[in-house]
Design a protein that fits this description.
Blueprint (H helix, E strand, L loop, with lengths): L25 H14 L1 H5 L9 H11 L6 E2 L6 H10 L1 E2 L5 E6 L2 E2 L1 E3 L4 E5 L13 E5 L4 E4 L8 H6 L3 E7 L3 E10 L3 E6 L11 E9 L3 E12 L11 E9 L5 E3 L12 E5 L9 H11 L11 E8 L3 E9 L3 H7 L8 E6 L11 E4 L3 E7 L6 H6 L2 H7 L8 H11 L2 H13 L10 E7 L5 E7 L24 H9 L4 H14 L4 H18 L1 H9 L9 H21 L8 H4 L1
Parallel strand pairs: 2-10, 6-10, 11-17
Antiparallel strand pairs: 1-7, 3-4, 3-7, 5-6, 8-9, 9-10, 11-12, 12-13, 13-14, 14-15, 14-16, 16-18, 17-18, 19-21, 19-22, 20-21, 22-23
Length: about 575
């Protein structure tokens, strides 16, 4: 490789209990090796890999056995005459000769159908290439060399345009070709135990590897199953939930918390396909918006990273690797109490998964799932805590006096928090987060009553989602009925509060300038990785760059429509029902 094109970096990932360790760290492992060898000699000395083996155990086993870790190094670009000589002297193989490819400690993604390996190197290398340590594992006596010299291209061009570089793989008797693509996103690979199918109703064991140019490689065994509903619009881009596992000193498998791509360590994680969103990024963006929407902490400030997923040696496109809601941890973070507080989620029947969850069905409310109740509390007792919420939420279909309604609102709702959520779903066009995908947290107060807090979920139908049924000039049809009546009655000075909050948002995060700057920056960031070209080619019928222009216009239109309609319905100079007067 030309020295002028190499970036002066250390390609070795930092060592850690959950990462594959670097060769120069072996002396520091000696005490651990001796301890584990005494306690668990079968696992360490037999030299046999078990699926439940975690990353540190695997590294110790390899270190002790002296096994070659990454196979044969890939040679630089070969002269064409040598390539012809190899082809003349060997038979072209119908099968791929390489089974795996590495960049240092990182496993490359692999799409078997196209015989293409994918190497993550980030999207910010500029013209120069980072130092790579590519190697292959496959048939006995295998060798590999590049046919194309990728260093002739600028690195950022190769990543953004998704260039595929030809690789010649050969033995003494056979040869075959494969390709290498460099991507700017982290790569997640999943290989299930015994190549089992990932199902809805049962966990299967799997090896999960996560490669990232910034945080290094993470390797772990896990239990995995499909998640979410069935609304995949004919695209088999399923979502998954997985739980990291490790082996304790007694040789038993247990949950294991892992830090993933710089996010807080946890055992449970989600891989969300966002199959219904052809932009593939709306849900990811809205979680960022939700976390930044208010200055003070709020429920469900979950982090996520976009990745490219390979499942069973098949390229699956852009996925959202995301934290999972842990109700007990979340209640403690927000000052709640896991011994008294409750969590439910509204859901439509289409999105019901196959796993058992306590559900309540109501003719007016539809379906509600019980997501968390304190130990010893029955589902019936938990659902009863939400009766005041139900009474307020279906007020359009029940006879309730203004006084009764006001009492419920003042006792059980924080008006600022309620209006805040109302503005969030209106101004970003979240059309699927009230009757469906709304988490409601019931937090017990000192007087024994419960107050409700809100958190959205699965926000893929947002930011100008193409199938929205909202008509031009209309408020969104996914309103909270209780907010409408509260504003009509101007309870708790709610109109003044709403307009103050709206003006503050419009002058800040919702200004036209900020919306354009934010979304076009996202467009540049995603396109620089080259991932959307592959996502759209895989699932949308042809490779294309991400274009957020229409999304920008839709979001700005939401602001205009809301302001126009709300000014008529809930003006500040009239505390009565503006609609009746009109």
């Amino acid at each position: 490789m030309n020295d002028k094109t190499q970036k002066d970096i250390d390609p070795k990932p930092a060592c850690g209990a959950y990462q594959r360790c670097c060769p120069d760290s072996r002396p520091r492992l000696l005490p651990v090796v001796l301890l584990l060898a005494l306690i668990c000699p079968v696992a360490l000395l037999a030299g046999k890999y078990t699926p439940a083996e975690d990353a540190l155990s695997r590294q110790i086993r390899l270190w002790m056995s002296g096994e070659e870790e990454h196979g044969i190094p890939v040679a630089p670009a070969m002269e064409i005459e040598k390539i012809w000589a190899i082809e003349d002297a060997r038979t072209e193989s119908e099968d791929a000769l390489a089974e795996r490819m590495f960049n240092g400690d990182e496993i490359l993604g692999y799409d078997k159908e196209s015989r293409t390996f994918y190497c993550t190197i980030g999207a910010e290398n500029g013209d120069a290439w980072p130092e790579l340590a590519l190697s292959v594992v496959g048939r006995e006596g295998i060798s590999a060399a590049f046919v194309d010299d990728y260093t002739y291209d600028f690195c950022w061009d190769a990543v953004a345009e998704g260039y595929r570089y030809e690789l010649l793989i050969y033995t003494d008797t056979e040869y075959a070709y494969a390709g290498v693509v460099f991507t700017g996103l982290p790569i997640v690979t999943i290989h299930t135990d015994d190549d089992a199918q990932i199902e809805w109703d049962a966990d299967v064991g799997a090896d999960i590897h996560i490669a990232d140019s910034e945080t290094g490689a993470l390797y772990s065994h896990a239990l995995i199953h499909r998640r979410g509903g069935n609304a995949y619009v004919g695209v088999p881009k399923h979502s998954y939930r997985f739980e990291f596992r490790s082996v304790n000193l007694k040789g038993k498998e247990q949950k294991a918390e892992r830090s993933v791509l710089g996010m807080e360590a946890d055992s449970d994680w989600l891989l969300i396909g966002n199959a219904s969103d052809y932009k593939a990024i709306r849900n990811h963006l809205c979680w960022q918006l939700w976390a930044a929407w208010k200055e003070e902490p709020q429920f469900g400030e979950l982090k996520s990273r976009l990745v490219e997923l390979f499942c069973g040696d098949e390229y699956m496109g852009i996925y959202q690797l995301m934290q999972y809601v842990n109700p007990e941890k979340e209640l403690l973070r927000m000052g709640g109490n896991p011994k008294t507080d409750v969590l439910v989620r509204t859901i439509v029947e289409l999105n019901i998964g196959s796993r058992p969850v306590n559900r309540r069905i109501d003719a007016d409310l539809g379906l509600t799932e019980l997501r968390y109740a304190p130990p010893g509390m029955t589902a019936q007792e938990a659902f009863a805590i939400f009766e005041p919420f139900d009474e307020a939420d279906i007020l359009r279909t029940r006879d309730m006096s203004d006084e009764e309604f006001a009492a419920i609102m003042e006792t059980h709702f924080d008006v600022q928090e309620l209006i805040d959520y109302f503005l969030f779903i209106q101004l970003y066009g979240l059309r699927d987060n009230v009757r469906n995908n709304l988490y409601v947290w019931a937090i017990r107060q000192e007087d024994g009553t419960y107050r409700y807090s809100f958190q959205p979920w699965d926000m893929d139908r947002s930011l100008g989602y193409e199938e929205s049924h909202q008509l031009p000039g209309e408020l969104a049809s996914y309103d909270l009925d209780m907010v409408h009546r509260m504003l009509e009655l101007d309870l708790m000075n709610s109109r003044q509060l709403m307009w103050s909050m709206f003006e503050e948002k419009r002058a800040g995060v919702l200004s036209d300038e900020n919306i354009y700057a934010w979304l076009y920056a996202v467009e540049d960031e995603i396109n620089a990785t080259g991932a959307f070209l592959r996502e759209s080619e895989k699932w949308r019928g042809g490779a294309q760059k991400l274009d957020v222009g229409e999304m920008c216009e839709k979001v700005i239109e939401f602001q205009r429509v809301f302001e126009e309609n709300a000014s008529w319905m809930w003006p500040l100079d009239d505390g009565g029902d503006a609609q009746d007067e009109a």
